[in-house]
Predict the structure.
Amino acid sequence: MSGMFDGIERRVVSLWFPRLASDRALRLCPVDGPFILTFKHKNANRIYCLNAAAAEQGLHQDMPYADARAFCPDLQSRVAEPEQDHRFLHILRRWATRYCPWVGLEGTDGLVMDITGSAHLLGGEDRMLADMRARLMRAGLSVQIGCADTRGAAWALARHGEGVAAAGDMLPALTRLPLTALRIEDETSVTLQRLGLRCIGDLAQAARAPLTRRFGPMLLHRLDQALGVQPEEISPYTDPPHYAARMSLPEPIGLLSDVMAGTERLLVQLCTKLKTQEMGARTLCLSLRRVDQDHQQVELRLARPLRDPHRILSLFGRGLKETNAGFGIDLLRLEATQVEALPSRQMSHVVDGRQDKLDDLISRLGTRIGLENIRRFLPADSHIPERSFIVAPAAYSEPAGNWVSMKPRPICLFPPEPIAVTGSRPPKHFRWRRMSMTTGRATGPERIAPEWWLEDDNWRSGLRDYWHVETIQGRRLWVFYTPQNPGWFVQGEFA
C-alpha cells in the first residue's frame, strides 16, 4: 500500500494561509475595516491580498484598485512586500517544526508536514490539528488545514473543503472536490468540465487511455498521487548552517588577556564547524556584553577566507585593545557574518608562507583604512595604454600574470600632455613641464590604432606613433605623435 511507510500509516498535513500577506501586514499595524495590499501590474495597481472585511464587500484578488475604491470608499491599502511575506512563511515553517521535523514549503502561501509517528506526542491527530489552529488564530493568521494519507489529498482538502480524510482509501474524501484540487492547470480543468467531468470522482471513473492521449500523462499522474497510487515525497526545507559560538562567563572579566583567551576558545569552536563545511570566514563579528547590559562589537574583515584560529586571533588584537570592559564582560559571542567556500588542499612538503603574510598584512591595514582602499593593478586585454590595466581591491582579487606586450611600457602613466613642437620625427629640443629637454636617443615608432568599437574622447585624434625618448637630462619619456591630427604629447615616464 502506498499509504504505508515502513509499516506505519503515513499521514500528511497541509496548511494553507489564504490571507498570508494581509495578515502579516495587519499584525504589524492593525486597522479596522476593509484592508488590501496592492501591487503594480502593467501600469495599473491591483489587489495583491485582502482581509475578510474587504472580501465581504465583494472585492477579490487581482481586482483593479480603482474599481475596488469605487465599491468600497473607506478602503485602506498598503503596498505589498512579497519578500517580507516569503520571510514570514519561513518563520512559520520553523514554528511548525514543534509538531514534526519534516516541514516543507507549499508554494508561496502554504506548508506541508509529514506527521507520521508524531501525532501521538500531542494526544492524537485531532488534538494536534486543534492546537495548530488555536495557536495560528491567536497570532491573527487565517488558516485552512487538510490532513490525509497523501500530500495531494491533504493539499486538496486544505484548499477545497478543509477536512481530515480517514486513513486508507482517499477517493471517498476527494470524490466531490473540483478538478482544480488535483493541482492541474486551469485550462485543463475547463476542458474536462466541458467534457462532463466536473469532480474528482467523475475523473476517477473515466477511461484512462483516452484521457492520457488527449491531456498527457500529468493529469492521471496527479490523480494517482492524490489517491496514493503514485508516491510523492515531502522534502523538508533545511536552514543554511549558522556559524556562531557564544560563551557565558560565571564571573565578569576585564583584562585584555582574558578576553583574548575567551575569543580563542570561540574561534576554535567556530573554525571546527567551518572546516566541517569546507568554508572560510571573510567577516567576523565579536560581541561583548558588559554587566551593565551595554554591548560592544569588534568587526574583523579578512583579505582571504580563513579558518585558522591562531591566525585570526592575532588579527583581533588591535580591535580588542580599543574596547572598554567597564565593570566587566560576562558574555562573548562570535559570528561569521560572511563566509566563502574554502575547500581542503593537499598538503605539501613545500610550504610558502609569503602569501599568508601578505593576506594578514592586508587584513590589518584594512581594519584601519578599509579593505576597499587597498588596491592592486591587474593586466587587461587591450593594446590601448589607458585600458591595459584595471584597478581592483586586493582583498577581492587574485594576483595575475605579467603584462604581455611586444614593446616596453612605462611604469608611470598619466594623461597626454602636449608639447609645442612640429614635424613627424622626435624633436631635438622641447619643453615639458617647464623644463628644457634635449633628445639623446629615440626608439620607435610603435603605431597603435584606436579601438573603433569603444568610444574614447582621448583617442579622437586617431592613430598614435609612440616613441621611447631618452633625454640627456636623464629623463626617459614615452611620447607619441598623431599623424591624422598633427601634434606631440608625453604620456608616460620610464623608471
User: Anything to note?
Assistant: Residues 412-493 form one domain. The first strand starts at residue 4 and ends at 5.
